[in-house]
Here is the input.
Amino acid sequence: MATTSDIRKGLCIRYNHDIYKIIEFLHVKPGKGPAFVRTKLRSVTSGKVLDNTFSAGHKIEDVRVETRSYQFLYAEGDTYHFMNTDDYNQITLQKGSLDTPDLLKEGEVVTILFNTEDSMPLSVDMPAHVVLEVTHTEPGVKGNTATNATKPATVETGATINVPLFINEGDKIKIDTEKSAYMERYKG
Here is the structure.
């Protein structure tokens, strides 16, 4: 058993007869009244996101997880195929268990959380950032850079990201997977 002081991003807990992964949390200590923890939870079975508030010191049942590295092979509709990088066993997961499936490129190595009790995959953790090539974007207009202007760009996985005006087709960009946001032009 854990308490609210053990809450952290990525922690898997058993709540309302389901397993949830904490995707956001905030410890709140108001001037008046008791402290509490505001959380955003995602169900690992249905992908449904819910907001919940735990009072300080509340007991929560954490789920013991094990992490393993898997390589993304390909997607077939809403089914995603992964291969274990150690023993080459393959597993399939549904699109709902991935945080940002539109940023997943074939060959990308991800971390998959498994429940230690029944070895069922719980969720997929993407790397902190990915490098993708811009496949389509409108050309930037010269002299239109007085403000922090952005334009939409489609990357090789099909995702649309807002990028600065100086980014062109064929450029590789680094993308923050947590926020699905442009970080920098990749010079690799």
